[in-house]
Amino acid sequence: MFKTYHIKPMSISTQLMLVVALLCFGFNLKAQSLSELKTTSAENNLNLKAQFKAFEAQLEGVTQAKSWQDPNLSFGYFISPIETRVGPQIARFSLTQMLPWFGTYKAKGDIAAFRAEAEYEKFQDQKLKLYLEVAQQYYDLSALRHIADLEAKQLRILKDLKSVIESNYENNKANLVDILRVELQIDKQLSVIQVLKDQDQALVTQLNQLMNRQLKTPVLISNPKQILEEKEVMQTDSVSKNHPRLEAIRQLQKSNKAESELAKKQAMPQFGLGLDYAIIQDRNVQNADAGQDALMPMLSVSLPIFGKKNKSRKKEALLQGESLQFQLENEKTRLESEIQVAHYKQDELYSLLDLYDKQLLNLKDILQLSEVALANASMEIEEVLRLEEERLLYEKQRVRTLANLHKTDETLSYLTSNSEL
To answer: Which of 58, 61, 374, 414 is placed for a possible disulfide with 132 were both Cys, Cβ 3.0 to 4.6 Å?
Structure first.
């Protein structure tokens, strides 16, 4: 005998809680655009954070460079007091402050400030490179998922072909081996789809690593096909005048000029201001100044008579300046070369895209005719499978070409960016 259980309906409050939970889950898994992924990576990427901390550490050097030298305080005690007219001298305090030539501290501060600016430009370049890497991973993932959709579509086509062959077999218009041949293709297609799922997870892991979040966090892309079909051609042919890679060298050049100025300042004498305080013991001698401590202001000047090191400093700054100028010219040439290579690649990809579009258009007509012929048993299944495989191959190549076009556009965007982004 069966027992009957009555299930109570959920209360309204429970239903509302479930709805809210589903909504929250849906918002957490909403698709993110490329710009949102770039922003997330800029906020969380560990390598970028390390670069910014390096800039902040370099910035602290400005305060250190502009700070005065610490004064020197010395104390001396005479084991055998020195007799003076007003009494024996038993101890002495000395306080000395060295002062460099006028403008020395400013030059040191400028050197540190310009080096900090160069470090900031490196941070800017690192951020732009991170954006480029995120974009490349994003378009690779979009292409992979679009290809997965094409492979799933191919699986449905193979199953439809199997139904046609089975129908022909029942009517003695096909052989059993034809059915087995299609089944082999279906098994192969299922294996390909599984491999694509594994590759998808690998790309998601790499993208999450760039954003410094849980490696298995889902990355949702609303419409991979639509994203890849959006074509934007970068027309810029010239290097940005203030690209971070160039600005970093320019800031080092400014630092080098400040170093040249500092070398001149260090060739000048330094001044020292001091104060001596001597403690005199009172021995009740008959003198109005007996036992009165002595106070003596002092002035000292360094004598930069050994000029070799100063000449070496100036020559070092000059040679470093020439080296930086060569680096700047070389970096400009490299950027221009990379831009030209990206444009050549862009033209090549557009030519391939036109070729694939033409091939797919021709194959579409051929396949329509071949499907009719297969249904009438006037065409072998091997030829139909070959045509379907060829069509799938061109479709996948077209998808990869579209992804490479977007990646090339992102590369051009990086190469023509400026440090203000």
So the answer is: 414
